[in-house]
Give the backbone structure.
Amino acid sequence: MKQHRIRVLGCVFLCVLVVALAGCAGAVTDDGNETESADEPVEPAASTSNGTTANVSDDSSDSNETVGTDETDEAIGTDADVPDDIEAEFAAADPPDAIAATLETEMTIDGVPFAFSEAVWMRAGGERRSESELTSSVQVTVSDGETVWNFPADGSYGTSHDAREPPDAGLERLYEDSLVLFEAYEIEAVETATVDGHETYRVVFDPNATKTDASEGLSETDDAQVPSTDEDVDRLELRLEQETMFPIRYELGDENASLTMTYRELEFGPELDDDLFEPPEDVEFIDTTLPSHETYDRVADADAAVAFDVDEPTTVLAGYELDRVTVSADEDDRTNVRLAYTGPDGALLSVEASDDLSAVEFDGEAVDLDGPTGTYTEQGTTGTHIVTWTCGDTDYYVGAPADLERETAVDVASSIPCE
């Protein structure tokens, strides 16, 4: 299967933030309504465990970091103090039992800077807590490894949902997602560097040198993906704390956008009270359990995982390749299998099979699909060609890009076996 076409910026940002950030999308106001993050750039602010915030110095990362052992920094990639095989040493490292830190995130998009920070506490058992000031109040996310609670520090309403990760995946997920970089990219240089007082290894990847076997043997995390440099990403770096190999900083970017995430005031193995990972008793929570989500390499594996038949089209468009297969189930026990085919310029053709597509029924033109009768419609806003039909106990959906012909979508649908 072709490697997943997720750009570097999105891949690292999402993979890491899933575990480390505060779950800002679930922030709610005191009346129970969800809020959105501020659109304007914000100054970094660190939250304390009692819900108050402290200003973070706006100095650049260069003022807190010393790179290399030679002041001229001419020996990049030849530092004698780095391991002979940094990838093997990182892969063998065990996460610390717990950490406490301030996670600072700095982004630049089309020349506009954005910055925010949050206090984070994490245990190896999957427990985590974060406090961030992204809206008008301090937003808190707490997880005991099985349930996640989001609420404003000064509010009386919040949301809760089942944790996506298994109970032991908190700190381990940070390591596993970082390992994807080693598995996907060639290392350009390794040297020593100091980040916020911690001695680290600075690993510089070549974002344009993807390993040929990167699609095989990846860490088996839910959404582990090989990032792709479809854009001119010219910087991709990782800092690893030398004793624990903890990924203390990520850096990546190009001329249009950049992202830096740094764990500052980092403490390893702190004694953390159990109360830190429990929701407050005076907050009322609304359950918003997330749908389950699994990714498979083959359609046959997804077919074996669900109770209904899943077939793939025998007609595959020129230039399109199967990119991923996902199985999801919602709170109403509806199960959906999605086959995503990517084509030129990132165009996406979707084939979906479900035990109940009633929620997305379309009115349109009846079309013959070499046996079953389907419904064709063109979505008004995007021009997507949509074909839906039922085969036995399976509901099908085909969504083809607007630049394809109507007949193409019908041909793809007709090629899916229905017996």
Notes: Residues 1-78, 213-230 have pLDDT under 50 and may be disordered. Helices lie at 8-20, 86-92, 170-184, 299-305, 406-414.
